[in-house]
């Protein structure tokens, strides 16, 4: 490497040593300086490491390339390719082992002198050394030498050569290579293929060639300019990288016609590419006159069938030092560690840190990966923030079947923990809506029963005529207020809100009594006030103040109510308007907002978010006119559909598949348009028709299913042949019985079929009887039989089939989260 930039090599087996090659060979020893001071004469490589010079070898001038011997012994044997084409074996250590002492100084000489461009030791047979030379019209450019070969004197000439000035030693000049390849061509780069001892990949002048030493007369090649720096991925032996100018080509030896990938072209010519030996699919590249090393992380995503898609490339750049980089070398064992050398022989020890990827699971577990390490974030024992998180609450509620009790709807607030009063109010409202819907449908089918679920506004707007207001007297005050007349629709709305019971009675007394019994004094007082009974409101507040769990401040509120006056400019109205916002209880706040508001303007009541929605809706039914609202179809709102789909996806992410399926069933009963279309069906191999569809459409003309191969009771009958073409269905690979499907949904059966009381859901067969098959080998059978087989076996049950069916199913071993809960 005389007159060129220095190169650097890590020792393949001594992980603390490396060699710098330029006009001479310099061996360095790396040691940690974490707990020690820098020794005299050592070179600082990084904050944690330093290098000490062990030896220098200047006996091999005109160096062009160097390759370190891959075997353990001798430990410091190197092959040096020279400008005249000779390959010299030299050492950097004092190895006195007699077995290998004769190797030091041995030279391998080509027939015609020309430059040696590259050297490569065979990783399987460590005695084989491949050398790539420049072109000569009468000689080969790829020579493979056996460094331990025994030649007879009449075949191999012997002569004396001078190793250094003033010293002579008899050595063996080997001139007969083991193999000669690539005639009348130039070899610019070489690498052995690890999968076979006798496969050699060479970057020739205008093509990449794969030589098979078992048949040297033939070679497999592809024409390309990217012939420099060929190197094999140590983790994927069929993947090879090479470069030309500023472009890197990635090859797949199984599809050698063209590169599978071409990396982004760099503005300057490349000088080196190298795969990371400790990281899968990580390629480093270096360009001329640059202080940046580009990294390409190649990730393959295998499909379920086993084919591979085009690699996904993640590109990044690292800067190990400030000066230009002459060369670099990956450490053979330390993960993502490399050492770089500058043109003036300044060295730097550098570690490429992996990108940290975060993963937050649906059950609030936080994990992150860095390199080969996986970290998990754990909560402190005394930290209750996780219990307060809404995602945790939603998951626990979904696990307890929250929202799926459609018979006793009000019980859903108990499934949610019975801690949220707003949820309790919501589910009681839905419970009342369900009750009134059923009653109305029973009395007069096709009436307003379905209108109940459309909402209070739609119910009020369904009135045939405009509702007029009238003056009503207050109880306990000499005052009148405008209240809307209660027609049938507004009475239904108040019943749905829970203020009045079913029937013609519109008295809120029973509702007030129930609130008092539950200790909701403030709410009861507000409802009484909204019904123009200020005397009852004061009475309720006094009862609450005198109760054991009541608040003594309620007496003060009752006293303030008793001083109510209707004068607009009174001091009472002014003080209540100012001080009501300081009250903690929202119902006390809206009581004074109602008393101090102008007629028809009740924003202080309607927009108090802490007051139950059904109480505000009931208030609106009594005091707002028809023109102050507009109906809205909530189910068709895009936001509602977005919420529903996200909740379904969330249940799937939690692996609550049974809960999500139950949710879909209940939803489809209430909204038939939401029922999804069939995504999978079983078709006949002969006629191609869906078996279940043909079963429901074929005319039976009074004949039983036994004519189609059906036997047994009607509820457990099976169609063992296609109802469309009557050809037999496939047989189960284990029990060898024809596959079948339940026929409970098929009309037109015998009289005995008509007497059978099938369930209203028309349930399908048990899962054990379902059709199941492998998408790869197409073999299958009953689901129960196949699951039982693969509990004890890995391969397909069909003879001579070696398909590992269950291993191709990435979700086959997943268990619903409901089944593993403590």
From TrEMBL:
One Pfam family matching this protein = zinc_ribbon_16
Q: Name one GO biological process term.
A: cellular response to amino acid starvation
The GATOR2 complex protein MIO zinc-ribbon like domain covers: 684-806
Entry keyword annotation includes Metal-binding: yes
Q: What are the MIOS-like alpha-solenoid domain coordinates in residue numbering?
A: 394-623
One of the record's GO cellular component terms: lysosomal membrane
Query: Can you say where in the cell this protein is located?
Result: Lysosome membrane
Gene Ontology molecular function terms on file: zinc ion binding
Q: Identify the domain of life.
A: Eukaryota
Q: Which UniProt keywords apply?
A: Lysosome, Membrane, Metal-binding, Repeat, WD repeat, Zinc, Zinc-finger
Indicate where this protein is primarily found.
membrane
- Tell me which stretches of the chain form a coiled coil: none
Q: Does the keyword Metal-binding apply?
A: yes
Function recorded in the entry: As a component of the GATOR2 complex, functions as an activator of the amino acid-sensing branch of the mTORC1 signaling pathway. The GATOR2 complex indirectly activates mTORC1 through the inhibition of the GATOR1 subcomplex. GATOR2 probably acts as an E3 ubiquitin-protein ligase toward GATOR1. In the presence of abundant amino acids, the GATOR2 complex mediates ubiquitination of the NPRL2 core component of the GATOR1 complex, leading to GATOR1 inactivation. In the absence of amino acids, GATOR2 is inhibited, activating the GATOR1 complex.
Q: According to its UniProt record, which protein family does this protein belong to? A: Belongs to the WD repeat mio family.
Quaternary structure and interacting proteins, as annotated = Component of the GATOR2 subcomplex, composed of MIOS, SEC13, SEH1L, WDR24 and WDR59. The GATOR2 complex interacts with CASTOR1 and CASTOR2; the interaction is negatively regulated by arginine. CASTOR1 and CASTOR2 convey leucine availability via direct interaction with MIOS. The GATOR2 complex interacts with SESN1, SESN2 and SESN3; the interaction is negatively regulated by amino acids.
What this protein is called in its record is GATOR2 complex protein MIOS
What's the source species for this entry? Answer: Papio anubis (Olive baboon)
């Amino acid at each position: 490497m005389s007159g060129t930039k220095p190169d650097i090599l890590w020792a393949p087996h001594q992980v603390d040593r490396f060699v710098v090659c330029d006009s001479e060979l310099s061996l360095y020893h790396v040691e940690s300086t974490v707990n020690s001071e820098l020794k005299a004469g050592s070179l600082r490589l990084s904050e944690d490491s330093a290098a000490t010079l062990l030896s220098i070898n200047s006996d091999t001038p005109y160096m062009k390339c160097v390759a370190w011997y891959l075997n353990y012994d001798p430990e410091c044997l190197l092959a040096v390719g020279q400008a005249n084409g000779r390959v010299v074996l030299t050492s950097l250590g004092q190895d006195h082992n007699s077995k290998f002492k004769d190797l030091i100084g041995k030279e391998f000489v080509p027939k015609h002198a020309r430059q040696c461009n590259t050297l490569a030791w065979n990783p399987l047979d460590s005695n084989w050394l491949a050398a790539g030379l420049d072109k000569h019209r009468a000689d080969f450019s790829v020579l493979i030498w056996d460094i331990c070969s025994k030649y007879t004197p009449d075949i191999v000439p012997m002569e004396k050569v001078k190793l250094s000035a003033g010293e002579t030693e008899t050595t063996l000049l080997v001139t007969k290579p083991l193999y000669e390849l690539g005639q009348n061509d130039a070899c610019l780069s070489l690498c052995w293929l690890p999968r076979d001892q006798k496969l050699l990949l060479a970057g020739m002048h205008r093509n990449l060639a794969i030589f098979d030493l078992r048949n040297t007369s033939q070679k497999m090649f592809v024409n390309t300019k990217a012939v420099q720096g060929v190197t094999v991925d140590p983790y994927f032996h069929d993947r090879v990288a090479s470069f030309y100018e500023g472009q890197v080509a990635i090859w797949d030896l199984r599809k050698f016609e063209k590169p599978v990938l071409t990396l982004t072209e760099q503005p300057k010519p490349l000088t080196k590419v190298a795969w990371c030996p400790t990281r899968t699919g990580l390629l480093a590249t270096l360009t001329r006159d640059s202080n940046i090393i580009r990294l390409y992380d190649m990730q393959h995503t295998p499909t379920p069938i086993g084919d591979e898609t085009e690699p996904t490339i993640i590109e990044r750049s690292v800067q190990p030092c400030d000066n230009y980089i002459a060369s670099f070398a990956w450490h053979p064992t330390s993960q993502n560690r490399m050492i770089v050398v500058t043109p003036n022989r300044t060295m730097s020890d550098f570690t490429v840190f992996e990108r940290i990827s975060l993963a937050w699971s649906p059950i609030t577990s936080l994990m992150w990966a860095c390199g080969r390490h996986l970290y998990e974030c754990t909560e402190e024992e005394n930290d209750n923030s996780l219990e307060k998180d809404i995602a945790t609450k939603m998951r626990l509620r979904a696990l307890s079947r929250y929202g799926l009790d459609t018979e006793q709807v009000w019980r859903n607030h108990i499934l949610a923990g019975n801690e949220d009063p707003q949820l309790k109010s919501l589910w009681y409202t839905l419970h009342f809506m369900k009750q009134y819907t059923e009653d109305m449908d029973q009395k007069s089918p096709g009436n307003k029963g379905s209108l109940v679920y459309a909402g209070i506004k739609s119910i009020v707007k369904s009135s045939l005529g405009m509702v007029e207001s009238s003056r009503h007297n207050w109880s306990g005050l000499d005052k009148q207020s405008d209240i809307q007349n209660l027609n049938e629709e507004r009475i239904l709305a108040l019943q749905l809100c829970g203020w009045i019971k079913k029937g013609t009675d519109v008295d809120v007394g029973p509702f007030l009594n129930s609130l008092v019994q539950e200790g909701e004094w403030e709410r009861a007082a507000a409802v009484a006030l909204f019904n123009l009974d200020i005397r009852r409101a004061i009475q309720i507040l006094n009862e609450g103040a005198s109760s054991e769990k009541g608040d003594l401040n309620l007496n003060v509120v009752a006293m303030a109510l008793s001083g109510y006056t209707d004068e607009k400019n009174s001091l009472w109205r002014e003080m209540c308007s100012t001080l009501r916002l300081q009250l903690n209880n929202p119902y006390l706040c809206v009581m004074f907002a109602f008393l101090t508001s102008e007629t028809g303007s009740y924003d202080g009541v309607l927009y108090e978010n802490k007051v139950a929605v059904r109480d505000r809706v009931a208030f609106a039914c009594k005091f707002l006119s028809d023109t102050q609202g507009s109906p809205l179809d909530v189910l068709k709102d895009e936001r509602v559909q977005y919420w529903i789909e996200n909740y379904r996806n969330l249940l799937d992410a939690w692996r609550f598949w049974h809960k999500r399926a139950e949710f879909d069933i209940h939803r489809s009963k209430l909204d038939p348009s939401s029922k999804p279309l069939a995504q999978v069906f079983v078709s006949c191999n002969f006629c191609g028709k869906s078996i279940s569809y043909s079963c429901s459409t074929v005319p039976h003309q009074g004949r039983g299913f036994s004519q189609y191969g059906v036997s047994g009771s009607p509820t457990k009958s099976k169609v063992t042949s296609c109802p469309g073409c009557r050809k037999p269905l496939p047989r189960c690979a284990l029990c060898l019985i024809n596959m079948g499907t339940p026929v409970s949904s098929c009309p037109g059966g015998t009289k005995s079929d008509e007497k059978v009381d099938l369930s209203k859901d028309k349930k399908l067969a048990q899962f054990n009887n379902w059709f199941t098959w492998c998408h790869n080998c197409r073999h299958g059978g009953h689901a129960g039989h196949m699951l039982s087989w693969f509990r004890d076996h890995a391969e397909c049950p069909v003879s001579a089939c070696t398909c590992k069916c269950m291993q191709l199913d990435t979700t086959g071993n997943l268990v619903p989260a409901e089944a593993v809960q403590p």
